[in-house]
Amino acid sequence: MPSTVGLGQAVRERETGQLLSASLAPGAAGELVLPADLLAQAGLDLADDVVCEVGPAGLRLASDTLRKVYVEITTACNLSCATCIRQAWDEPPDHMPLARFRRLLDGLPQHPVTLSLSGFGEPLVHPDILTLVWLAREQGARVEIITNGMLLDAALARELVAAGVGQVTVSLDGGDEVAYAAVRGHARAPAVAAVMALVEARRRARRPVDIGLAFVATRRNIGSLPGLLSLAHELALDFVSVSNVVPHTPEMAAEMLWGGAAWTASFPDASWRPRVEMARLTLDEQSRPALAALLDHGPTWPHPGAAGGPQRNYCRFAHEGMLAVARDGRVAPCLSLLHTHPEQVNGHWKTVRSHVVGNVDDRLLDIWRDSTYREFRRRVRDFDFPACFACGGCPDTDTNTTDCYLNPAPACGECLWAQGIVLCP
C-alpha cells in the first residue's frame, strides 16, 4: 500500500508534475482529516488510494475506487463490420458462462458500480442476456448496453426497460442507408427501428433510461453525420458519441480522419495561439459564415485553442475507476488491452499486446486493490510516457511492451484513447 502523504505535500508534488496517490489515515499529524459522513457522501473508501490533483480550478480530491466494469459477455457477433477489431484476429466466438458472470458479481465492491455489457462482440446474441441483466440489477449495479440493434425488437426493448437498464447505446455508423451499408454491410432500417422501439418502451414505462447513438467516423461515412444528428434531434435522444476508427487493417487505415488531430494532441491546448473564447451565439444566416471561418482557423475540431475539447494524456480508465473483463474471465486495465491486436499508428504498424491483471475467479475488488495494479494506474495517471505523436513512429513502439523511456509493459504513449482520438464507449 502506498505510504500516507499529507495534503500539503500532495499539492507540492502535483505542482512538480507528478500525480500523487495517498492513503486516507484520519488523525495523522499533517494529514487531511475528513469526517466519516463526508467520506461516505464523497464515495471515498479507507481501503482505496486518494488521488490529489491541483489544476486551474484548484484542488481536486478523488478516490481511486472501482466504479465501472466493461464486461465482454460474448465475442460472437451477427455482423461483420468493416471497422471491427474482429477483422484482424482469429479468436473463436464464445459466450461468458452464467457461473463466471456470477463470480464477477460476487467480487464487486459493496458500493454500486456500473456494468457495461459491451466489448468486441454483440451482447444481444448471448442466449442469457436478460438473465445477466437481472442478476446485475439484483446486485444493485447500473447496467449499460452497447448494441448494433439488429436483434433489438419492440418486445426485447420493453424487457430491457422493465429490467431497469440505465443506458442503451445503438451503434449507427451512418446517417443514411448508403453510408451505413458501406461500414456495416447491412441495411440501416433495423438499427433505426431498434432506437425507436427503445424510445417508445421508455415512454410507456416512464423509466429513466438514457438512449443514444455511437458513430465511428470514417472517410466513407462522415458526410452522412448531419443525417444522424437530425435523427437524434427528431427522436430527442440523450446523446450522440462521435469517435474515430482504430485502424486494424490497411483498409481501415485508408479511412482515418485523425492523422493531423493526433499530431495536434501532442501539444498542450494552452500553447495554441490565438486562444479562442466565445460567448454563445444564435446560429442563423448572419453568424453561420463566421462560425464556419472558426472551423477553418484550426487544423482539427474541436480547435486545440478552444475550450471544451477532449483531454490529452488522460486515461479515463485510470482516472475514473474503470476496467474491462473478457468473456473468459481475464481482467485488463482497459478495452484496448483486452485482446492482442494490430493497429496502424504514426504511420507504422504496431502490435498492441493484451495485458492481464487478474481473473474474475478471484475477487474483482481484490484485483483492483492489488499493489502492482495500483502502481500501474498511478503511472498512467502521471502519463510519464514519450510524446509519440509529436515524434512519430519508431521501432521502440512496434509493440506496447516498452518505449524509449524504458517503461515497463504496457507502454501507453501511443494510446489513441488517451489523446481523445478514440472515445471510450
Description:
Helix content is about 30%, strand content about 15%. The chain has 15 helices and 14 strands. The strands form three sheets. The protein has a nine-stranded mixed sheet. Helix 5 packs across helix 7 (about 190-205). The radius of gyration is 22 Å and the shape is globular. Residues about 1-25 have low confidence and may be disordered.
Structure at a glance:
The protein is an alpha/beta fold. 29% of the residues lie in helices and 16% in strands.
- The residue ranges in which pLDDT falls below 50 over 5 or more consecutive positions are 1-24
Distance between the termini: 31 Å
Output mean pLDDT.
88
**Main β sheet profile:** 9 strands, mixed
Topology as H/E string?
HEHEEEHEHEHEHHEHEHHHHEEEEEHHH
**In angstroms, what is the radius of gyration?**
22 Å
- Give me the number of helical elements: 15
How much helical structure, as a percent, in the residues?
25-40%
SS content category: alpha/beta
Note the overall shape.
Answer: globular
Number of strands: 14
Q: Topology, pairings included?
A:
Blueprint: H1 7-15, E1 20-23, H2 36-42, E2 49-55, E3 58-63, E4 68-71, H3 98-106, E5 114-117, H4 129-138, E6 142-147, H5 154-162, E7 167-171, H6 177-184, H7 189-205, E8 210-217, H8 225-234, E9 239-244, H9 250-253, H10 259-264, H11 288-297, H12 316-319, E10 322-325, E11 330-332, E12 341-345, E13 348-352, E14 358-359, H13 364-368, H14 371-382, H15 388-391
Parallel strand pairs: 4-5, 4-10, 5-6, 6-7, 7-8, 8-9
Antiparallel strand pairs: 1-2, 2-3, 10-11, 11-14, 12-13
